[in-house]
Design a protein that fits this description.
mainly beta, Lipocalin, ten-stranded antiparallel β-barrel, 54% strand
Length: 176
């Protein structure tokens, strides 16, 4: 059973990420060559605040490319000690506040890509002091060797997620 109240107390930095974030993902190889880029809209919420949820945290990523392709990826998680744990069809991993950051800006993640043997990632997220901007860096490893980086720049466009009802909103205007 999710521990709805406790997650905000145990992971206060993660709680600051609640809302809707628009941004760009840019992928680079180890030589710095751009491999791909696409727009994103991420919805980060704590469904535990609604009764009946099986998860403490839920993130839905909506991606869109200039050629019209789109993709939606759900990432539900549960609280486990001092971290949240993700288990989905795509990844198996965790996220946690970094207590050594006395400025309380840093969240770290680690996950393995299911279906891609030997591939794992580390992510560092920096949220601005005002809470409206964040930057993220993914470092991709295959068999222990770095092979790719993803740089993500985002701006919070809404602190509220109740209006989000499904995958079709990707790119829709944010209600004021």
């Amino acid at each position: 059973m999710p521990n709805h109240v406790d997650i905000r107390q145990r992971l206060p930095l993660l709680a600051r990420h609640e809302g809707v974030w628009d941004g760009w993902y840019r992928y680079f190889d180890v030589e710095g060559n751009k491999l791909d880029e696409h727009r994103s809209r991420l919805v980060c919420r704590f469904p535990a605040l609604s009764e009946g949820s099986a998860f403490d945290y839920d993130q839905t990523n909506h991606y869109s490319w200039p050629d019209g392709r789109t993709e939606v990826r759900p990432f539900p998680a549960v609280l486990a000690g001092d971290r949240i744990v993700f288990k989905s069809d795509l990844i198996d991993g965790w996220a946690a506040d970094v207590p050594l950051d006395t400025h309380q800006r840093t969240t770290m993640l680690n996950w393995v890509r299911l279906g891609e043997p030997g591939v794992y990632l580390y992510e560092m997220i920096q949220i601005s002091d005002c809470g409206h901007y964040r930057s993220r860096v993914w470092q991709w490893f295959r068999e222990g060797r770095l092979f790719q980086r993803t740089l993500i720049d985002e701006q919070r466009v809404s602190e509220h997620t109740a209006w989000v009802t499904g995958p079709t909103f990707a790119g829709d205007p944010v209600p004021v």
